[in-house]
């Protein structure tokens, strides 16, 4: 059984590396398949780690999960692809209005000819996805500068921008219970904090770091010092250590609650594998974010995700 599953994973990897997609855009391919393929490629290109986790879901849940993650990619990319904040807000307003229309019952057949919207329509209708979680994802992107005064504000941002995706994935699996939601909340906060830590080495152009001001003040560290991230800067190291510790606390809480999550929805929590591996790699380099080993991709991650899913552990 194990060898057969490894063979399947190898075949998936081959297909992805060969053409970058499972389906090619062609006039002979049904529109539905084109939309599915678009979502798959969008997530694969811009959210690779979560893409690897999503591949291990079963259909139709995998299809709906890719639609949700493609939507999240679309709105997350807006602030990085526009030079004018007003244009970004208009694009977010488009998605807000679209989500509203997709949840309306008075005109269910009118769907804009946009691949992500088309796939979202299928997912929303099939799983009765909660509108509020989509709205939280959109509103979280209004904080384009990622400026936080307190760690509580940082946790709230992670809750809205990451946990909301996990709530939707649980709904895709037909799971709506307090234990699963509680675990998803903690995992989303852990993953969200890690995402922000990983973004710091790429923040030079914006001259801002997503570190709460209360931490910077407590350790007498400026944003410029965090951006420079010199190896012998103990103040910066302590700030990163505290944020990594906060992420790890949420990760451990999610793992403690994971046993109460219904079996069919447990693969939703595979991002815990990627989060945990990054935190361990960060610890090994003494919380130096610009260490070359951290800036490289984790070559063993695909196997680690598969092994976690196979063993039923995160």
TrEMBL record:
InterPro entries: Isoprenoid_synthase_dom_sf (IPR008949), Squ/phyt_synthse (IPR002060)
GO biological process, alphabetically ordered: carotenoid biosynthetic process
Keywords in alphabetical order: Carotenoid biosynthesis
Catalytic activities: 2 (2E,6E,10E)-geranylgeranyl diphosphate = 15-cis-phytoene + 2 diphosphate
Pfam families with a match to the protein in the record: SQS_PSY
Enzyme Commission designation: 2.5.1.32
Enzyme class: transferase
Transcription regulation as UniProt keyword: no
Organism domain of life: Eukaryota
The protein's name: 15-cis-phytoene synthase
Organism, as annotated: Culex pipiens pipiens (Northern house mosquito)
């Amino acid at each position: 059984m194990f060898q057969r599953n490894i063979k399947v994973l190898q075949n998936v990897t081959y297909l992805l590396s060969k053409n970058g997609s499972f389906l090619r855009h062609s006039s002979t391919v049904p529109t539905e398949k084109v939309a599915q393929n678009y979502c798959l490629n969008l997530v694969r290109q811009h959210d690779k780690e979560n893409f690897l986790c999503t591949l291990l879901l079963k259909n139709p849940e995998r299809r709906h999960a890719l639609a949700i993650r493609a939507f999240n990619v679309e709105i997350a990319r807006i602030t990085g692809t526009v030079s004018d904040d007003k244009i970004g807000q208009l694009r977010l307003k488009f998605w807000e209005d679209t989500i509203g229309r997709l949840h309306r019952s008075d005109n269910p057949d009118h769907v804009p000819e946009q691949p992500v919207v088309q796939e979202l329509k299928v997912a929303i209708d099939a799983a009765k996805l909660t509108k509020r979680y989509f709205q939280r994802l959109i509103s979280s992107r209004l904080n384009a500068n990622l400026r936080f005064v307190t760690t509580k504000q940082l946790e709230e941002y992670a809750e809205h921008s990451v946990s909301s995706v996990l709530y939707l994935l649980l709904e895709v699996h037909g799971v709506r219970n307090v234990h699963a939601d509680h675990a998803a909340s903690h995992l989303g906060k852990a993953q969200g904090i890690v995402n922000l830590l990983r973004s710091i080495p790429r923040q030079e152009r914006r001259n801002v770091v997503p570190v709460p001001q209360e931490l910077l003040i407590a350790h007498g560290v400026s944003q410029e010092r965090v951006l420079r991230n010199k190896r012998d800067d103990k103040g910066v190291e302590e700030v990163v250590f505290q944020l990594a510790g906060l992420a790890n606390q949420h990760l451990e809480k999610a793992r403690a609650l994971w046993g109460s999550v219904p079996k069919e929805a447990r693969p939703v929590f595979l991002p815990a594998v990627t989060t945990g591996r990054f935190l361990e790699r960060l610890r090994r380099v003494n919380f130096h974010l610009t260490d070359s080993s951290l800036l490289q991709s984790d070559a063993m991650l695909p196997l680690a995700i598969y092994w976690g899913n196979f063993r039923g552990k995160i």
